[in-house]
Design a protein that fits this description.
CATH superfamily: Glycoside hydrolase/deacetylase
Distance between the termini: 25 Å
CATH topology: TIM Barrel
Number of strands: 13
CATH class: Alpha Beta
Helix content: 25-40%
């Protein structure tokens, strides 16, 4: 079994996965004997073993600041999906709406920075994987074929030149894509892609529609996923998981 968890910000703000919960998750994974692999290793896995993939969308700076040291401490790998167009940009989060905006306002007032070239090179030095997440984070299914091609090809070329690194993993911004997107990835040198569809990794399925789980805030939900019983998670448990997130209640 392969479980693929995804994260965005790791920190102590209203839109972040709390640092203590992140470390607890790593410790729990080790206790349950899950082997850490990068996204580009899923097709090399042993079907008799359990694996976990940790993916980080957008590459917020607080992930580098708060999560990297814990990954190294507990001997975990990570796959980091980069949006080069966010270099040097500050985006604004909203506790009320639980999302980010390019503009600061009364509701969008929590600043978030992103990793840059220095941090990306450090990630590679530490044995992590870098993947593409488009250049500017658009909804790909809202773009025409040439606009999609530009977002995909430029992001890959930019990162490969900057890092002197060949990448072949992709993640769809906001989980939005269509058949055109998949064809462009296949013809553009990519071998696999992450969605936001909930479920376990199927190594025999479409490599461009790999499922993931949003990192859970509830210990019960986490353990249910690790036992291969995500289908047993009730609506009430999902509500409690959301409440746990909003009030930062510890496990």
């Amino acid at each position: 079994m392969i479980v693929n968890f995804y994260f965005h910000s790791i920190g102590e703000t209203a839109l972040s996965f709390p640092v203590k919960k992140f470390e607890f998750l790593l410790v729990r994974l080790k206790k349950k004997r899950f082997n850490s692999i990068k996204f580009n290793q899923i097709h090399e896995s042993d079907p008799e073993k359990n694996y976990v993939v940790l993916t980080f969308d957008d590459c917020f700076y607080d992930v580098y600041e708060n999560a990297l040291s814990l990954l190294l401490k507990h001997n975990f790998k990570g796959t980091f999906f980069v949006v080069p167009g966010y270099d040097g940009v500050v985006r604004w989060g909203s506790e009320k709406y639980q999302k980010w905006s390019d503009s600061q306002s009364e509701d969008f007032n929590i600043p978030y920075r992103y990793m840059g070239e220095i941090e990306r090179k450090k990630l590679l030095e530490y044995g992590m994987e870098i993947g593409a997440h488009t250049f500017g984070h658009p909804n790909l299914d809202a773009l025409n074929i040439e606009e999609q091609r530009l977002e995909i090809e430029v992001s890959k070329a930019f990162l490969e030149k900057e890092l002197n690194y060949s990448l072949d993993s992709f993640c769809y911004p906001r989980g939005r894509y269509n058949e055109i997107t998949i064809d462009l990835l296949k013809n553009g040198g990519f071998k696999r892609a992450c969605t936001t569809k909930k479920g376990y990794v199927d190594v025999n399925g479409d490599p461009f529609q790999i499922k993931r789980f949003a990192a859970p805030y509830s210990k019960f939900v986490l353990d249910s996923i690790l036992l291969g019983k995500s289908g047993n998670i009730s609506s009430l448990d999902k509500v409690l998981d959301r409440l746990n997130r909003l009030i930062f209640k510890q496990w």
